[in-house]
Amino acid sequence: MDERICGLRDSLVGLDSEKVKENVNSALRRRVEPVEIVNSLADGMRMVGERYEAGEFFLPELMMAGEIMKEAMAIITPYLKRSEMAQRMGKVVLGTVEGDLHDIGKNIVKIMLTSAGFEVVDLGADVSVKEFVESVRKEEPKIVGMSALLTSTMDGMKEVVDELKKEGLRKGLKILIGGAPIDGDFAKRIGADAYGKDAMDAVRKAKILVGAES
Ligand code: B1M
After folding, report:
1. CA 95 to CA 45: how far, in whole Å?
2. Could you tell me the mean pLDDT of each successive run of 10 residues in the chain, 214 residues long?
């Protein structure tokens, strides 16, 4: 890892909000690519998850890490440049599926898509099937993006895909999904068009879906 950001991940795992902000600002001053800073923080969140799984962290620590991550993202967001292709990339309706409150990954995907020139309509977290469908009808996006972090909510993605089909809205509309328990096989199984492993991959897949990249 770049030595200019190596303290960043560890300060997040250490749940040291002030240190994280200091490290983010310092990395930005040293002209580290904002995307690299985001990746390093995402890595830290993964380590927080591992500690939770190992019984070293509990729910309050998860919540604290989530808040620190949001504060850090608020500092970084203005530095992520909007692409000049903005007009051509098109609209994405994005949300975390019903019953699922995890929105950190979804928010990173939103920031990355926006920086790549997509117009993102963010429905937030805990988004019902009906809300997704109504938003597609209203916004006429090129892509619907869904995020899920819980194994118990990932099937909600299939419900959205099925309902869009039932409502005659699936034609010409691409569906991109992601989140820790999701993989390419699941995407295929539920009839989604693509799976994003992380935020960078989500941008790459979104570009492919709209024909901007092969
Ligand atoms: Co929770 N949680 N959580 N949690 N939480 C997990 C997901 C869990 C794996 C932890 C664990 O047990 N190891 C586990 C799920 C287990 C399972 O389903 N099998 C879990 C659990 C159990 C729970 C609760 C049930 C705990 C409880 O209450 N007892 C509860 C559920 C609440 C609910 O949703 N209804 C809960 C609550 C919470 C907090 C609120 C405390 C907090 C969320 C704060 C927030 O999001 N605002 C939280 C957190 C922080 C986590 C972990 C530690 C970290 C998640 C995260 O932010 N990762 C998580 C452990 C883990 O994931 N290893 C865990 C960092 C983020 C950058 O990565 O979200 O994966 P990720 O996003 C990536 C990619 O997945 C991808 O790109 C992103 C950026 O690279 N991606 C996409 C994501 N969406 C995409 C969409 C795309 C494409 C790519 O296209 C559209």
Report:
1. 20
2. 72 95 93 89 90 93 92 89 63 98 93 88 98 98 98 98 98 97 98 95 95 84
Atom of ligand 1 nearest to the CA of 151: 18
Residue 100 Cβ < 6 Å to ligand 1: yes
Q: In the chain, how many domains are there?
A: 2
Measured from the CB, is residue 44 less than 6 Å from ligand 1? no
CB of 109 within 8 A of CB of 145? yes
CA-nearest residue for atom 10, ligand 1, is: 49
133: in domain:
yes
CATH at 189: 3.40.50.280
The CATH number for 30's domain is 1.10.1240.10
